[in-house]
Design brief:
With 138 residues, this protein is mostly helical. It is 73% helix and 0% strand. It contains five helices and no strands. The protein is elongated and about 60 Å long.
Length: 138
Amino acid sequence: MRENLEKNLALLIIRLGAGGMMLTHGIPKINRLMADEVKFADPFGLGPTVSLALATFAEVGCAILVIIGFKVRLATIPLMITMLTAAFYAHWDDPFGRKELPLLFFICFLSLLIQGGGNFSIDGLFGRKKNIYKGPAL
C-alpha cells in the first residue's frame, strides 16, 4: 500500500514539475505566434508558422493536460516529439549543455508515457470509478 502511495506521489511530482516548467517555454511562443512575421525553425518542411503552432500546442496544451492528469499518455507524445526536435534539430550544433534540458524533459515525459498519470490525476479518478463494483461478474 505504501509503495503505491509513493509511486503515485512521484508521478504527481513529475507531472506538475515537468508540465509546469514546460509552460514557461510554451507561453512565450503564443506571443511569437501572433507576430506579423513568424521566425521559427521548420524541421519538417511545414512552414515556420505551422511548426511554431505545433510546438505551442505541445508546450501549452499538452503540458496543461499533463499537469491536470487528463489523457497523460496521449499528451506526452507531442511533448516528446517536440523535445527530441529541440534537442536534435534546433540545438544540433550547440554544446551538450543546450541539448540537456530538452532531453531531460523527454525522459520525464517518456516516464509518464510508460506509467501514466497515477491515481492523483483526472485519469486516475476515472479509472477508480470503473473498478468500484467488487461483486461477482455479471
